[in-house]
């Protein structure tokens, strides 16, 4: 097959323009070009902002113990009640070092992650298909899919640019069985854990399936390359030990919290499981598929995490690939596509529910998975597969006039994911900053003699927003606060100020009562 060569300028310009179009219709469209708005709400978005700022203060030695962030005082390690964002924190820190404020650095961090997600996927697909236009189409799906509009409220799901690289290294290892790729794979998965615990679990589980399926498809070659030799298996086992050691700093802190935190009730997790219609339910921000936003989820589940439609192009490619698998010789020539399709279908089936039936209840017995509170976020991993399938399939069946057909695919992908960012509800950056001024002013005037922390106890306000107001103010004045928020907070701490007034606020770990004489109360 003679490859059509694009001009050098087109090789560079096409992915850059494609990325800019994606940014315009998603994250920059939400933030506005003047960066006046912040994606998400005053809850989770600002909580992630807090985590990033805490990491920055740690590396600049403004705080001395990373895991012991000064909220939920006097509990420690409070950071381990949620994702830590350590892996992507250096991106945020660069902007803070360049003198951008906390909120602007968060916006630029968000935009940078979207760019990294795009170009990491572009690099992998360019390597696999040797065509910039085709690679741009797949990268657009992974970085700018309409599915992501239900994730912009969850900034912790966006540091996932290592995912395509890990899958690529798995593919390369199963081609030549060079040990360096095992090191790349394990290091990449470990890094993803540092970017986000859930994302790390998703990548570990799905990449293990792809690795096993590719190994089975190449079993004869693997045997010839001495994959199953004791020496090679010992090397892999040694790599796995190093992988576990890399995760130990995380595991130790999270196990501390796991031992005292309220365990998730599977009934709560069950309600978050996607149902079949979830995969064809989309955000109102979608222009092309807005009609699907009216379908809704006619079931007792949190609908806002169920908008899992990724556009029609990936689904058409998935269905077409399955039909082609019955064509003689197609699987043998497309083992990577086969392994990705099978992995995707298996994991969709494992994480879906049909009425009261689901296989996920058995998965919940595995370590780590039982802590998942929102199962549809698995879609952040599935999205990579939905991005790769159209590209690998088209690369296989299109033999002539490839540039023309791939250009049509790219245009269809962009159209498939057209959106109106104004249909989502970001919050104003300046308003967010102004919320903190009266709290900081009170804290600066307070007499801290003999006091160790403060409790912010307004008489009204959204409970979660109030907690985060206090946490962000705490970062500014560098004083601990009793307030705190995380997705796994004990129920009592969500309404902590009521408990505080009733003198029933307890230290989680040993249940010793807080010494109220050391706490400053502000309102």
Report the major sheet: 2 strands, antiparallel
Radius of gyration: 24 Å
Q: Would you identify the regions where 5 or more consecutive residues have pLDDT less than 50? A: 490-512
- Quick check: average pLDDT? 88
Number of helices: 22
Question: Strand content of the residues, in percent?
Answer: under 5%
Let me know the number of strands: 6
Structural class from helices and strands? mainly alpha
Structure overview:
It is globular, with a radius of gyration of 24 Å. It is mostly helical. α7 runs antiparallel to α8 (179-195), α7 packs parallel to α9 (197-217) and α15 (335-351) packs antiparallel against α17 (379-397). Helix content is 57%, strand content 3%. The strands form three sheets. The chain has a two-stranded antiparallel sheet. The chain has a two-stranded antiparallel ribbon with strand order 2-3. The protein has helices at 8-25, 27-31, 44-59, 89-97, 102-129, 132-144, 162-176, 179-195, 197-217, 219-224, 230-258, 266-272, 312-324, 330-333, 335-351, 360-363, 379-397, 402-416, 429-445, 463-477, 491-494, 496-501; strands at residues 37-38, 353-354, 357-358, 427-428, 453-456, 519-522.
């Amino acid at each position: 097959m003679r490859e059509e060569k694009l001009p050098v300028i087109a090789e560079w310009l096409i992915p850059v323009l494609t990325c800019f179009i994606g940014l315009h219709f998603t994250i920059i469209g939400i933030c506005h070009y003047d960066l006046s708005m912040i994606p998400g709400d005053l809850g989770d978005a600002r909580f992630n902002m807090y985590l990033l700022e805490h990491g920055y203060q740690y590396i600049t030695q403004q705080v001395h113990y990373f895991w012991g962030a000064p909220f939920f005082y006097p509990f420690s390690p409070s950071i381990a009640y949620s994702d830590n964002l350590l892996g992507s924190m250096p991106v945020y820190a660069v902007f803070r070092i360049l003198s951008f404020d906390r909120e602007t650095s968060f916006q630029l961090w968000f935009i940078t992650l979207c760019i990294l997600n795009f170009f990491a996927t572009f690099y992998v697909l360019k390597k696999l298909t040797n065509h910039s236009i085709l690679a741009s189409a797949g990268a657009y799906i992974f970085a700018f899919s309409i599915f992501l509009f239900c994730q912009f409220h969850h900034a912790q799901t966006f540091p996932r640019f290592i995912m395509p690289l890990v899958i690529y290294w798995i593919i390369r290892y199963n081609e030549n069985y060079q040990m360096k790729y095992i090191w790349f794979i394990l290091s990449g998965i470990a890094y993803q854990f540092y970017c986000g615990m859930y994302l790390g679990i998703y990548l570990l589980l799905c990449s293990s399936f792809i690795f096993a399926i590719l190994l089975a498809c190449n079993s004869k070659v693997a045997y010839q390359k001495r994959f199953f030799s004791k020496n090679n298996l010992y090397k892999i086992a040694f790599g796995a030990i190093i992988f576990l050691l890399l995760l130990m700093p995380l595991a130790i802190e999270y196990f501390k919290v796991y031992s005292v935190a309220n365990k998730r009730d599977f009934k709560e997790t069950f309600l978050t499981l996607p149902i079949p219609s979830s995969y064809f339910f989309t955000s109102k921000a979608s222009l092309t598929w807005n009609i699907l936003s009216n379908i809704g989820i006619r079931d007792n589940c949190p609908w806002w995490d169920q908008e899992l439609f990724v556009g029609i192009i990936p689904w058409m490619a998935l269905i077409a690939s399955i039909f082609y698998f019955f064509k003689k010789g197609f699987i043998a020539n497309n083992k990577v596509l086969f392994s990705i399709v099978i992995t995707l279908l298996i994991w969709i089936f494992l994480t879906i529910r049909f009425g009261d039936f689901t296989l996920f209840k058995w998965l919940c017995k595995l370590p780590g998975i039982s802590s998942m509170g929102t199962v549809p976020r698995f879609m952040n991993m599935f999205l990579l597969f939905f991005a790769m399938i159209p590209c690998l399939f088209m690369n296989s069946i299109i033999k002539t006039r490839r540039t023309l057909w791939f250009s049509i695919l790219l245009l269809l992908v962009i159209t498939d994911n057209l959106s109106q960012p104004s249909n989502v509800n970001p919050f104003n950056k300046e308003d967010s900053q102004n919320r903190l001024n009266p709290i900081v002013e009170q804290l600066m005037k307070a007499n801290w003699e003999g006091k160790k922390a403060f409790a912010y106890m307004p008489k009204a306000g959204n409970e979660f927003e109030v907690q985060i107001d206090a946490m962000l103010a705490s970062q500014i004045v560098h004083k601990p606060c009793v307030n705190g928020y995380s997705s796994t907070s004990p129920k009592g701490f969500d309404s902590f100020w009521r408990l505080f007034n009733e003198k029933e606020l307890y230290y989680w770990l040993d249940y010793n009562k807080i010494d109220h004489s050391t706490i400053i109360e502000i309102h």
